[in-house]
Amino acid sequence: MGREADWINTPGFNMVADEGLLFLKAYTPNAKSAPSRSCILTGRNSWQLEEAANHFCYFPSKFKTYPDVLEEHGYYVGYTGKGWLPGNPGTKNGKPRELVGREWNQIKTRPPTRYISAIDYSANFEAFYNDKPSGKPFCFWYGGHEPHRKYEYGSSLKEGRLTDDVDTVPEFLPDVTEVRTDLLDYALEIEYFDQHLQEILAFLEEKDDLENTVVIVTADNGMPFPRAKSDEYEYSNHVPMAIMWRKGIRKAGRIINDYISFVDLAPTFLDVTGISWSESGMHPTPGKSMRPLFSGRKQKSPFNEFVLIGKERHDVGRPDDLGYPIRGIICDGWLYLKNYRTDLWPAGNPQTGYPTVGGSPTKTWILENRKTPGMEHFWTWSFGKRPEEELYFIEDDPWCLVNMADSAEYDSLRQTIRDKMEDELRQQDDPRMFGKGDVFQKYIVSDERWRNGYEKIVIQKQKLVFPWINASDIDPGFEE
Asked: 11-304: CATH homologous superfamily?
C-alpha cells in the first residue's frame, strides 16, 4: 500500500510523512475503536486489558494511560473530537475519568455534509493551546469523528467527483455504482479530517512550536466497510501512519517497512519525553519505543519480526451478547487467523442485522443481492460463517480471499506460524491460551441501551436498538 489512492487527497498527512517517517506496515491489534484506542493508550494488547478487550466496555481502573503519566509529569493534556469511546471510562475523584485528558469540543462550525461532525477540531486545538500556561509542554489527542459512519450518500458527487475516479475497488466488495459512490463519500470524510490536520500544523508553525512537537497521524482501524473494520484481515488492521518531529528525526522522508504495532506508541511517547516506563506506574508492555528508527541509522535487525492481532466482543447482536473471538499474527508477509467460535456468526446474527458491520450503502447492497447469481460470494466473505483457521499471503492477496490453511503445501508453515503466535500469546498471559477465554464473554456491556440486543429484537420484538445499522439489514426470516 502506498501513501494514498489517487482519488484521496491528504496534503496534511503527506506533509507529516515528507518531513518525518512514513510507516507502510503499521497495525492496530484490534480493529474496533474502543479496544484499538485502549491499546494506544496503555501500550498493551487488548487481550491483556481485561474488560477493555471489548467494545462498549468498562475501562479497568487499574490501567494507567500515557496521558495520565504525562499529566503527572507536568504536561497540559487534552483532546478534541472522539477520545476513548464507546464505553464507561470509570471515575476518578468522583468524576468521569479523563483517559485522554480534558475535553475541548465547545467550538462548533457548520459541517459541509449532513453527517460530518459540527465540532471545529482545529479551533478547539487553538483554544486548548491558548489556554495552556506559557512554557508548559502539552499532549493533545485529535480524534476526528471522520471517517466514522454515517456518510451523506452522494455528497462526493455533489462536489464534482465521478465514480470512475475510484481506481481500485477492493476485491472483497462488488464493483458497482453504489459501492464506488460510498468509497468516494468515505474519501470526502478523510479529506475533511486532513483539512483540520493542516490547520493544526499551520497554527503550530505560526507559534514556532512545530519544530519540537512530535506529530503522529494514524487511524484506529481500517476502512468502515464489510470485511474490513471490525474483522481481523489486512484491510481491518493495517492502518496508515506517519510521524513527524523536526528536531528529533534525521533523514526525513524515509519509508519504514518494519512491522509496527499500536502497542509501540505509548512506549515511544514516554521515551521522547524522557520518562522511563519502569517509573511510569503503567503495566508491563509488549511494545517498545520507535525512537531508534528516528535516528536514520541502519538497524541490525527488524524493529518487530511480527505483529499480533485479535478480537473478543465488538458490537452486540448474538444471544447472550457473545463476541466472536479471534487471534492472529502477521509475519513475513503472511497472515494467520484462529477463529475460536466457528459456530457463531462473525458479524452478528442475521436477525439483528449483522451489527458488527456498520450500516452503509455497501452493506445494504451486499445483503440485498446475496441470492443474485454471481454475487453470492460477497455475502459469504462479509457475513458467512468461517473455518477454524485462515492463512493468507497478503503480499499477493491483500484482500485475504485465498485461504491456504487447508493446503497440504502450506501445512508446515501454518503450524509454525500458529505455534509462534500461541507462544507469544502465552508469554502475554492471554486467558485464551490457558482455557480461560470465556472471561471475555462474561464482561457486561457497559451501555444498558445495547445490552441483550438479540433478545430485544428477536425474542421481545422490540424496535431496532442499534442506531449504527439500517432496519432493512435485519433478516428475521433468515434460513441458514
From this structure: Alkaline Phosphatase, subunit A (3.40.720.10)
